[in-house]
Structure formats: structure tokens, C-alpha cells
Design a protein that fits this description.
about 0% strand, elongated, single chain, 8 helices
């Protein structure tokens, strides 16, 4: 609408220039400026005789102001929800699962309070609210991954929609990657293998989907990078384990030779 409004301004300017050029033509007097007179007389002219019905624009203005007020309310509430979702992921990486779940539950309650307004005004979902839902999805998916070693289904993620679920599950791969690195430092090969298999399956399922929006493609690229890192970690861990086994075997053999 802003672009179209700018176009209208250019049209008005062009019309003003045209009037000026006409006024310069021989035999044409100065074109009177009736704009003020028109504005003053508009109030006395019946609306049925006006070219434009002002009541329509007044109605549109009221609706837009009401929508803008609701939008500001959603943005304001979403700030706290976004912060809680991010903090929950921070706590999950540090083993504070109970605190993380409490924060995620608070986000869900706030979401339920906003949903009636969102459902009444579909346009309010995009932007801040949808971003919060993606962040919440990432947090709750990571929580259940750590707790139950599984990825929640879309059906279990209500009120998160398919697009938000897609963004959340792709962001989840990054958190799984960080968890895998922490597990690798503890030489927990099984945990790293589980992380690699999970990310591999997520990437594999997403790649077969068509018509994905642009921001999802960026997340897919990042998930692929995470998968390559996990492959390298597994490779390095397997080499380290084989090296340790060889060293232990060599040590035992040497010890047996000494005893004999």
C-alpha cells in the first residue's frame, strides 16, 4: 500500500504540472486554485453527491487503527515469549531441564491467550508471533529429544503450524549439533551416533519437500553443514577408539612378553 500511495503522489504532482502547462497556453487564463474552496464546501455537500464517499475511508481508517493496536499488543507480548523460549534452550544445554520446561510451559500459556486474537486476525500470525512459535518449537523439540530421545510430531506440537514446525525442526539440528560436540568431549560415541542419525533423518525428509519458502532453504543449508560436522566428529571418534584399542592391545602384548 505504501508503494501505491507513493505512486498516487507522483500522479498528483503530474496533474499539477499539467495544469500549470495549460495555464501558460495562449488564450488560457490562470487556473484558479479551488482546492481550499472544495475542502470548505465538502462538509455542506451531501455524501451521495461527492465523487468519493468519505465514510468509506473513515471506516477503513478505524479498522486499520484497531488492527495496528492489536498488532502492537502482539509484538509487545511476543518479546517476553521469545526471551523465555531462548532462555529455555540455554538451560537445556546446561542440564536445567526442569527450569527449561517451566519456561516453555509459560510460553505455551501465553500463546493460548493470544490465539483468539490471532485467529480473528490471520495477518497477525506472520512476523513476531510466528517467530516465537518457531523458537518455542525449537525449544520443546530439543527438550523431548534430550528427555525421550525422540522428535515430536507436528500433531503433538499444536498450536504450532506446519511452516513454524519446519523452521523449528531445522533449527533443532543446530542444537543437536552443539549437544553432540559436548557428548564427543566425553567420548560418548552412542550419543553422537544418535545425534548424527537424527539430523540425517531430518535433512533427508526435508530435502524431498517442494515449494519451500526462501528462509527455510537457508536453514536447510545450515542443517547440511551441521550434518557434515557430525559425520566428521563420528569419524574422528572412531579413529580415536581404534587407536586406543591398538595401544591397549600392544601394551598387553608387551606385558605378556615381559612376563614370559
Amino acid at each position: 500500500l505504501r508503494h501505491k500511495y507513493d505512486s498516487i503522489k507522483y500522479v498528483v504532482r503530474k496533474l499539477e504540472d499539467t495544469i500549470f502547462e495549460i495555464s501558460l497556453q495562449p488564450g488560457v487564463g490562470a487556473v484558479p486554485d479551488d482546492s481550499k474552496a472544495i475542502e470548505e464546501s465538502d462538509s455542506s455537500i451531501p455524501e451521495s453527491e461527492l465523487i468519493i464517499k468519505m465514510a468509506d475511508f473513515e471506516k477503513i481508517r478505524s479498522e486499520m487503527e484497531a488492527y495496528d493496536a492489536k498488532r502492537e499488543d502482539v509484538i509487545k507480548k511476543c518479546r517476553d515469549m521469545q526471551k523465555s523460549s531462548k532462555n529455555s534452550i540455554y538451560d537445556l544445554h546446561r542440564g536445567n531441564l526442569e527450569r527449561a520446561k517451566t519456561q516453555l510451559d509459560q510460553v505455551l500459556e501465553s500463546t493460548k491467550e493470544l490465539l483468539p486474537m490471532i485467529e480473528e486476525n490471520k495477518g497477525l500470525r506472520s512476523g513476531s508471533f510466528s517467530n516465537v512459535m518457531e523458537e518455542y518449537a525449537e525449544g520443546i523439540l530439543f527438550y523431548f529429544f534430550l528427555q525421550e530421545k525422540r522428535v515430536l510430531s507436528l500433531e503433538e506440537m499444536s498450536p504450532v503450524n506446519a511452516h513454524e514446525f519446519m523452521g523449528g525442526i531445522l533449527d533443532l539440528t543446530g542444537e543437536i549439533g552443539r549437544f553432540a560436540v559436548a557428548s564427543a568431549t566425553k567420548r560418548d560415541l552412542e550419543a553422537v551416533q544418535m545425534c548424527q542419525e537424527t539430523v540425517d533423518r531430518i535433512v533427508g525428509q526435508v530435502l524431498v519437500l517442494n515449494g519451500l519458502p526462501g528462509n527455510v532453504h537457508k536453514k536447510i543449508d545450515q542443517a547440511k553443514i551441521t550434518l557434515r560436522k557430525l559425520d566428521n566428529i563420528l569419524y574422528e571418534l572412531s579413529l580415536a577408539r581404534k587407536s586406543s584399542a591398538v595401544e591397549e592391545g600392544g601394551g598387553e602384548a608387551a606385558k605378556g612378553t615381559e612376563e614370559s
